[in-house]
Amino acid sequence: MGKKMILLLIFGVLAAYYIYTPLPDNIEEPWRLMWAWFAELLGISHFMDILQFFMSLREVPVRSDENVTVMQTTFNNVPVRVYVPKRKSEILRRGLFYIHGGGWCLGDAAFLNYDFLSRRTADRLDAIVISTNYRLAPKYHFPSQFEDVYNALRWFLHQDVLEKYGIDPERIGVSGDSAGGNLAAAVAQQLIEDPDVKIKLKIQSLIYPALQTLDMNLPSYREYPHFPVLPKSLMVRFWSEYFTTDRSLEKAMLFNQHIPVESSHLFKYVNWSSLLPEKFRKGHVYNKKSLLTVRQRFLRQAME
Ligand SMILES: *[C@@H]1O[C@H](CO)[C@@H](O)[C@H](O)[C@H]1NC(C)=O
Ligand SMILES: *[C@@H]1O[C@H](CO)[C@@H](O)[C@H](O)[C@H]1NC(C)=O
């Protein structure tokens, strides 16, 4: 009973915190986060499953409108939605392969916002849009997400598939947002080295992509650690769920202590002191040495 009371109290405090946090309109995420966190605390369900449940309430069925024909099919056993403009075209069209976001744990091509985006893109760009799904964490970990997306993309890039949809093989792009941006960048790079795929991408367009997990203490993480919709703790949870069910990775990432000393040469790739424009760096200084010193202190404490 005592424990439940404390949980309720915490829930109340969090509720108050979220109510008084100023947010743009239409953002309901904090409530969902709170419910998910609470349900997990009570052992009712996995955090991500609750969030995914809330998101699934906003999925829309496959339906065409006056400008775009929408179809559901599979590419290499991966479910995809295809958006084809209805107006006649004299020439071969552009093709866009889109990968939804959601921290590798959430989301679906059927989600209202993604359906809307794909529909609009198809209509405005007069392009065929393929909006792919992929298996999600926590049930599936890396590299399942990557593999699904890559398999679907490889299927799409077959000459006969492109012909079927009237797509110009010279004008194909890949795009994605957030975790989808991460996957888009990953498949684009893999494709360059794939001798089996003859038709290559012309462009990659990454929308607020998640591109590195070496340093979890970038200036934006320092400036806005608790800012909804995506507080640092949630981003760290997404990354760690993508890799493993072992929650100790999440803890290490929160303290930025997840990169083994042997791999510290990789830090040079995230030196944001040279990569970020001045205005985003603010007063923060990238310091590889301090990353490692803190790490050693952390390891010592962990061993004691
Ligand atoms: C279809 O296209 C027309 C002309 O651009 C536009 O006015 C209309 O709103 C579009 N319909 C939908 C459902 O987007
Ligand atoms: C990061 O880049 C800056 C600017 O180029 C450089 O001065 C600094 O030494 C680099 N830091 C590390 C740890 O490599």
UniProtKB/TrEMBL annotation:
Residues 96-250 form the Alpha/beta hydrolase fold-3 domain. It holds the Pfam family Abhydrolase_3. The keyword Hydrolase applies. The active site is at S178. It comes from Prolemur simus. GO terms for molecular function: hydrolase activity. This is Arylacetamide deacetylase. Keywords: Hydrolase. It comes from the Eukaryota. Belongs to the 'GDXG' lipolytic enzyme family.
